[in-house]
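F.,

This is the one I mentioned.
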């Protein structure tokens, strides 16, 4: 690395996220300088097909000028305002109306009727936890506070969201989970964990039984809420086995436990429908979303809450006065304007329909890799897929973790001009929703070349 190069400047100043910090001292970071559709370019002009849409998020690719125009127009009108102290602004109202009009169906008779804007998915999940506690205090159930997530589930990086996250690495040495209110149940990775001859349906029954056993062991009167991503993203793009959410929801209803759908990755067309909740018939009490809400051109996220929860907030306010929470940048007008324009573009360009139409080509191209000796399983829905690398497919034997096969594949793919994400030895694909069938072919071709070189 040349002294005074951009890489050296980066290394001298920035602590990178989700990165082996000591490992990157030699090479530094790859700095991106531009984008064009599904591609991004680094400072040396090298082109990469963004197979992850950045952080599972840049749904409209990297050069959507209509979003830049929306941001500029809003900056000229009202560059900043907030929603504290009974004040607000129209950019937030316009976005909230549009978002709620397309919200997933809530529980029967209890629609998602209000929205709290934030700047990240983590903040939305933290607020959802706080609201579950706040509401149960109002209802005279101060002991009903435990929150259940799933092993390998990812919900963010703030203290509560990271506690809820089920990845050991997110807890180790950070003194998390912050309290014993955070619990984790088994996660539905059918391919890796099903017993010989166990169908997806039987496996789903077992997962629901695990959840029920946990709730009963803790005492249903102590369990407030269950969080799940419709497709577990950070865990490796894990689609749920058939009947999983139907059975999980039956358990939650039985014990009066809220279902909070974390749609931060799955929302906005990713699973071939507007919401992952649509794809898997989830009827949530709250929904967190972010990322593709603004195509990631601005940091904005939203927590949608049911009318029952909203009524409880009104009741609490009648008792306590102020609703004592809020963020300076929440509902930032520029972010709201960009998000609203994003939702319009989704409609005008039929982006969700396009994603659903490209999905068979996308999944088919990756499933075509099943003939490769390194590939154990390929599974996905819409424009999200996970390719599981295996030492021995026939006997379902994984590679030793020290071999870091997934990481090696991720790095080699990058050298080949393809950006993908390794979650252990599962390689995740979530390209921008605007990807074309020929770009899907290019993506699969680059990945096959990568696997050949890794053999
Ligand atoms: N929830 C899920 C399912 C996510 O994948 C993420 C981030 O990847 C988050 C929450 C956290 O979102 P953010 O990084 O915007 O805080």
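My design for it:
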């Amino acid at each position: 690395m040349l002294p005074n190069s951009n890489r050296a400047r980066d290394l001298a100043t920035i602590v990178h996220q989700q990165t082996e910090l000591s490992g990157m001292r030699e090479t530094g970071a790859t700095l991106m300088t531009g984008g064009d559709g599904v591609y991004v370019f680094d400072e040396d002009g090298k082109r990469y097909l963004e197979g992850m849409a950045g952080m599972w998020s840049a749904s409209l690719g990297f050069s959507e000028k209509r979003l830049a125009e929306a941001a500029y127009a809003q900056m000229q009108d009202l560059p900043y305002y907030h929603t504290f102290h009974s004040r607000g602004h129209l950019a937030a109202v316009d976005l909230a109306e549009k978002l709620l009009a397309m919200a997933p169906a809530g529980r029967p008779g209890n629609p998602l009727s209000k929205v709290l804007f934030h700047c990240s998915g983590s903040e939305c999940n933290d607020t959802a936890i706080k609201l579950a506690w706040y509401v149960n205090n109002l209802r005279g159930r101060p002991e009903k506070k435990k929150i259940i997530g799933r092993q390998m589930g990812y919900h963010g990086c703030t203290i509560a969201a990271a506690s809820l996250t089920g990845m050991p690495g997110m807890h180790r040495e950070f003194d998390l989970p912050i309290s014993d209110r955070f619990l984790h149940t088994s996660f539905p990775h059918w391919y890796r964990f099903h017993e010989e001859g166990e169908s997806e349906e039987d496996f789903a029954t077992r997962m629901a039984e695990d959840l029920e056993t946990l709730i009963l062991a803790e005492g249903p009167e102590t369990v407030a809420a269950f969080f799940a991503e419709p497709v577990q993203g950070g865990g490796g793009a894990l689609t749920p086995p058939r009947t999983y959410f139907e059975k999980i929801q039956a358990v939650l209803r039985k014990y009066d436990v809220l279902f909070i759908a974390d749609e931060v990755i799955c929302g906005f067309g990713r699973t071939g429908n507007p919401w992952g909740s649509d794809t898997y018939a989830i009827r949530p009490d709250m929904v967190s979303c972010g990322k593709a809400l603004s195509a990631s051109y601005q940091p904005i996220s939203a927590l949608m809450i049911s009318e029952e929860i909203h009524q409880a907030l009104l009741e609490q306010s009648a008792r306590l006065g102020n609703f004592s929470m809020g963020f300076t940048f929440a509902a930032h007008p520029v972010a709201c304007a960009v998000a609203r324009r994003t939702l319009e573009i989704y409609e005008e360009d039929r982006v969700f329909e396009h994603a659903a139409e490209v999905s068979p080509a996308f999944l088919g191209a990756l499933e075509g890799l099943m003939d490769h000796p390194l590939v154990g399983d390929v599974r996905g829905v819409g424009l999200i897929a996970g390719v599981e690398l295996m030492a021995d497919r026939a006997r379902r034997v994984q590679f030793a973790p020290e071999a870091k096969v997934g990481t090696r594949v991720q790095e080699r793919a990058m050298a080949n001009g393809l950006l993908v994400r390794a979650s252990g030895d599962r390689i995740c694909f979530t390209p921008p929703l605007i990807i074309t069938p020929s770009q899907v072919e290019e993506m699969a071709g680059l990945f096959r070349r990568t696997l050949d070189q890794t053999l």
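The mean pLDDT is 97.

Talk soon.
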